[in-house]
Amino acid sequence: MRRFIAEYLDWSLATVSSLSNLSLQCIVNNFEERPIYEELTSSEKDFIQNRVSLSLPLHFAANVFPDGVYWKRCCITEPKTVLDMVTLCKDHIKKLNIAQLLPPVKEPQTEDEEQASELTLANDDDKSGMDHFDFRILLDKLTNLEELHLVYKVKSCGMNFEWSMFEMTNRDCESLAKALKSCKTLKLFRLHLSHLEDKKCRLLVKYLLDHPSLRTLDFSHNVIGDSGARAIGKLLTKSKLEILNLYDNNIGGPGAKAIAHALSKNTTLVSLNLCLNRLKDEGGQAICKALLNNKTLLHLQLGANGVTWLTVLSLSSMLAQNNTLKSINLSCNTLGEVGGNALEEAMSHNTSVTECNIHLTDIEERRVSVINQMVWNNQFRKQETNPREKNTENAN
Q1: What residue spans define the domains of the chain?
Q2: What are phi and psi of 334, to 5 degrees?
C-alpha cells in the first residue's frame, strides 16, 4: 500500500469539488454562449443563479430566469453604488417607493460587550445596531422628487421576528424628518404600516410645518393617538395640505377636536380620512360642527369610529348650510333609526352630496333606499348642469 503526502498539509479530498459541481461551474462560465438551464434540477438551477454573472444583458436574463436568487442578487447593492447612480439620474427621479426597510444585521457580541450593553440599556432605548437607512444622504440629492412612499417593515422575517423590524427608531425618525425638510419639491409623503406613534409623529410634523410644496400626507395604518393628532391639527393651520389620510390609527375625541379646530380655519384641505379610529361622538360632532365654517372640504370619511345618531344630528345641521361637501362615509357605525331620520331630512335639503356610504349602520333598508335615491338625484343634477364633466367621466 502506497501513501502520498501532499506538500500542502491542509489539503484533503474534502477540498476537491465534485464532478457535478465542476460541470455546473463550466456551465456558469459559458452561460451567455450556451444557456443550459431548463434541463437542470431545482438545486442545480439554484447553483447557477447563485454564481452566474450579474452583467448578463437584461433581455437575455429576463427570458432565462423568471424568478429566483439571480434577481435578488441584482437588487443587493452597496449604498455607495446607489448614491453614485442617483447623482447621474437625480433630475429624472420624481417618485420613490420603498416597500420594505431592512435593519442592519446585529453582529454577535462578546461576553464583555453584552454586559456593557446591559448596563446602558436603561438609558438608551434605541440600539444603534438596529437603525435603518439615513435618508438625509439620499433625499438631499433628489432635487426633483415629488412623491415618497415609505414603510418601515420586513416582508418575510420568518423565525427571526423582532418588533424593531416593523417600526422606526428615534434616530430613524429624526434623520427622516430632517431629510423631508430639505426636500423642498416633495408634494406627497406616505408613511404607513410603520408603528408611528405620537412622539415620532410630533417630530415629523415639526419639520413639515413650513414645507413649501407638501400637498398630500398619508399616515394610515399606524398608532397615532390624541397627542399626535394635535400636532397634525397644528400642521393644518400652517401648511397647504389638500389631502390628509389618517385611516386606522388610535385618534380619540380630544385629538379629533384639535383637528376640527384647525379644520374650521383651514382653506386648502379637500379630503380628510379618519376611518377606523376612536373618535366617538365627541370627535364626530366636533368635526361636523367645524364644517359649518369650512367651505373647501369635499370628501369626509368617518367610517368605523363608534359614532351614533348624535354625530348624525350635527352632520345634518351642517349639511343644511354646507353646499361644498360632495362625499361622506359613515359606514360601520351605529346610527339607528334616529340617525336615519336625521340624515334623510338633511339630504332632502342638500344638493351637493353625490356619495354617501351608510353600509352597516343599522339604518332600516327602506330609509337607506330613500337616502340613496336623493344622492343619485344630486349626481344626475350635477351631470345635467356640468355636461363637460359628464362627458369626461364617460370617456374615463
Answers
A1: 21-75, 79-106+130-395
A2: -95, 90
